[in-house]
Amino acid sequence: MDRGFLTELIRAAIESIRINKLRAFLTTLGIIIGVTTVIAVVSVIIGVQKKVTDTFSSIGADVIYIQKYPWVMGARRKWWEIRKRKDITFTEYNALKKYSTTIKYIAPEMHSRVSLKRGNKKVEAVEITGTTHILPKINQQYVETGRFLSEDDVRYRKNVCVIGTDVAENLFPEENPVGQYLKIAGNKFLVIGILEKKGNIFGQSMDNVAVIPYTTYQKIFGSRRSITIVALAENKDEAIEEIRWILRHVRKVPEGKPDDFSINTSDALIKQWNELTRSIFLVMIVVASVALIVGGIGIMNIMLVSVTERTREIGIRKAIGAKKKEILVQFLIEAVIVSLGGGIIGILLGFLLAKLSSIFANLPFAMPIWLVLLGFLFSSLVGVFFGFYPAKKAAELNPVEALRYE
Amino acid sequence: MNKRKNRDLIKLKGIKKVYHLGQVDVHALRGVDLVVKKGDFIAIMGPSGSGKSTLMHIMGCLDTPTDGTYILDGMEVHNLDEDNLAEIRKKKIGFVFQNFYLLPRVSTEYNVALPMIYNRVPYGERKEKALKLLEKVGLSHRIHHLPSELSGGERQRVAIARALANDPDIIFADEPTGNLDTKMGAEIMEIFKGLHKDGKTIVMVTHERYIAEYAERIIHIKDGKIEDEEEL
Question: Which residues of chain A register pLDDT less than 50?
Fold first, then answer.
C-alpha cells in the first residue's frame, strides 16, 4: 500500500470518528484510565526513586550503623527475640575503637527529642544528638558558620551545642546565633556553630536538630539507653565482617547463635525500597492491564457497531473495487486512531497528574521518553489487537448483501 | 469503432445461481446464455423475482454463479476469488444503482474520486479527472456539496461520474431511474445515451418499457431464464 492510499484511509477513519466524537471518547475511557495510571505511577515512582537515592546518599551510602535493632526486618527474624537483645553501650564502642583495623572513623550517637528555649521563644521536638568531634568526618555534614564540637568539649562535658538551620531561624531570627545561649531541657548551652542545611527527607526536616558532646548528653539525659555507633571504613564489606567478629566476642554470643546486634547500612534500605517498588509496579501492571483490556473490549464493541452501521458503505467500497485487505486496514486504522487518541489523552493526563503530585509531594519530576513511547505503543497495540476482529468482519462481508443492507 | 464492436465482451454460458435459504433451494438463475459485444447497450427486463438483479450482480462480478461459465473480455471469471473479482470491478466495471449508493458524509468530488483512490491514481490526477467527469454530467457547480444536499437526479449523475472514474469497459445500471421522476429519469437516460454514443458498453436492468427502449437490445428474463430478446 502506497503512502497516498494510506493517507486516504487515515482521512476516512478520522472522518468517521469525527462524526461520533462523544462515542469515540467514551469508548476510549478505559484506554485513557489505563495509560494515565501507567504514566502517572511510573513517573511518580521514578521521582520517588530519585528522591530516595538522594536521601540514602545523605544518610551516607558508606556509613555503617551499629545498633540494637535492624532497620529492615528480615522474614526469618522474630521481633520478640530481637526485643530481648542487650543494649549497645560504650563497651562495644570502646572495643571497636581499640581492636578494629578496618574502621577509619568511629563515633557514638545518642538521640532524644526535646524542646529548645531561648527567652520566650521555643522550638518543639528538636532532635538532640550526643556524639564526639569525629561525627562530621563520618556523615559528611559540616558546620556552615562557627565550629563543630572539639575533643575538649567532649572531654570536659561542656554545655556547647551545634544547631541546625531550623533551630537557628526559629530561636535567632534576627541575629547570629553563634556565641549566644539557649536552653536544652532546662540547661544553658552556648551555641558554637550552625550545621549545613540538609533539607527534608520523607517530608521531615533534617535541620531541626542540635548536636552536643555525648558526655554532656549523658549528664543531662542519663546513659541508660542503647547507643548507636556510626563508623566509616575504606572497605565497607570487610569492615562489617570485622565488626561482627569483634562484637560477637565482646557480647559473648555463643557459636551457632545469631548476632544479637544489627549492623545497618543503606544497602538494606535500598533493597527494601526496591522490593517495595517492585510490588507497586506489579500492582500497577495488573491495574493497567485490566483497564487496557476493558478499554480494548470497548473498542471492539464500538467497532462492531461501526461495522454494522456502515455495512452499506462497505458494500459501496467493495462494489467499486476495494479488496478485503483494504477494508480491513481501513477499520484497523480507525480502531488504532481511537485507541491511540485515548493513549495520547492518557499520556497528557498522566503527565499532569505526575507533575501535580511531584509539586504537592515535593518530589523531583521525571517523564522519561521511553515512558511516553510505552504509552503510545500500548495504546496502539490495544487498537490493533481488539480492532482486528471487527475489521476482519467488515472485510469478509459479501458485497451484494452489504449493498442491500438497510 | 464498428470493427471493435464485434468483439465479445461478455460471454455467459449455462449460468445458474442457487441460493440456499434454510432448507429451501431458490433457483434464481436456471441457465442463462448471453453475449454482450463491445459497445452494446442492453436492457434486461423482467418482473421482480425474475433473477434480473442476480444476473446483473454476476455479470458485474459482485457475485459468482453456482454453475456455468462466464468469460469477461476473454478471461474466465466464474471461478475467481473475491479479491480478484474486486480487481476486475475496479478496472473494468462501473456501477450505477437505483439508490445511488453514494458515501453520505463526503463531498461529490470525493465520491467520484473514490474508485480512483482504490486504483492508486495520484491525488492531483484524480482530482482533475473527478472535476472533468462532474463537468461531463453537468455538476461542476456541485463539487463540494454532500449527497444529502443534492436532488435525486443530481445524485444519480454523481453516481454515473463515479462509475466512469476508472474508465471501465462496461457500465452496469440497476434500475437507474427507479427512484427518479420521469423528467429526471429522462435526463439520466440521455446521459447513458451519450455514453453509449461515446462507445461505452452498457447493461441496464429495468422494469419500465420506455426506459428499456433507450437500449439497442432488450433481454426479457423470467423465472431465471431468458425468455425473449428483441432488437430495437
Answer: none
Q: What local confidence, expressed as pLDDT, does residue A6 receive?
A: 87
Which has the closest alpha carbon to A378: A6, A132, A35, A116? A35
Per-residue pLDDT reduced to its tens digit, B171-203: 999 999 999 999 999 999 999 999 999 999 999
Does the pLDDT value for residue B2 go beyond 50? no
ipTM of the complex: 0.94
Q: In this complex, do B103 and A316 lie within 8 Å of one another by their Cβ atoms?
A: yes
In degrees and rounded to multiples of 5, residue B169 shows phi and psi of: -75, -30
Model pLDDT, residue A230: 95
Amino acid B54 reads T
Check pLDDT > 70 for residue B170: yes
The model's confidence at residue B1, banded by pLDDT at 50, 70 and 90, is very low
In degrees and rounded to multiples of 5, residue A108 shows phi and psi of -90, 155
- What lies within 8 Å, CB to CB, of B117 at 6+ separation is A5, A8, B126
**Residue of A7, A320, A396 to mutate for B, most B C-beta atoms under 10 A:** A320
**A259 and A189 fall within a common domain:** yes
Considering only CB atoms, which chain B residues are within 8 Å of A2? 120
DSSP-derived 3-state class of residue B179: coil
Is residue B52 scored above 50 in pLDDT?
A: yes
C-alpha neighbours within 13 Å on the C-beta side of residue B197: 7
Least confident of A253-267, A382-396, B36-50, B147-161: A253-267
Containing structural domain, residue A130: 63-264
Other CB atoms within 10 Å distance of the CB of residue B8: 14
Tell me the CATH number for domain B39-64+82-231.
Answer: 3.40.50.300
- Chain A with chain B: Cβ pairs closer than 8 A: 67
Closest-CA distance of chain B to residue A393, Å:
15
Q: What is residue A203's predicted lDDT score, i.e. its pLDDT?
A: 66
Residue B6 — very low, low, confident or very high, per pLDDT cuts 50/70/90?
low
Neighbour tally for A257: CB within 10 Å:
8
Mean pLDDT computed over every residue of chain B: 93
Torsion of CA A383, A386, A391, A396, to 10 degrees: 160
Which residue do the cell numbers 450505477 mark? B96
H or E stretch at A189: strand A187-195
pTM for the structure as a whole = 0.75
Q: Do B118 and A325 lie within an 8 Å CB cutoff?
A: no
Altogether, the residues listed in chain B come to a count of: 232
A260 with A382, same domain: the answer is no
Taking the C-alpha atoms of residue A319 and residue A256, their distance in angstroms, rounded to an integer, is 86
Q: Do A184 and A333 share a structural domain?
A: no
What burial class does residue A370 get, using C-beta atoms within 10 Å of its C-beta: 0-12 exposed, 13-18 middle, 19+ buried?
exposed
Indicate whether A199 and A81 sit together in one domain.
yes
Residue B185 main-chain phi, psi, to 5 deg:
-60, -45
Cβ pair A323:B57 closer than 8 A: no
Could you give the dihedral angle defined by the CA atoms of residues A274, A277, A283 and A284, in that order, rounded to the nearest 10 degrees? Answer: -130
Residue A310 contacts B where some CB pair is shorter than 8 Å: no
Same domain flag for A256 and A294: no
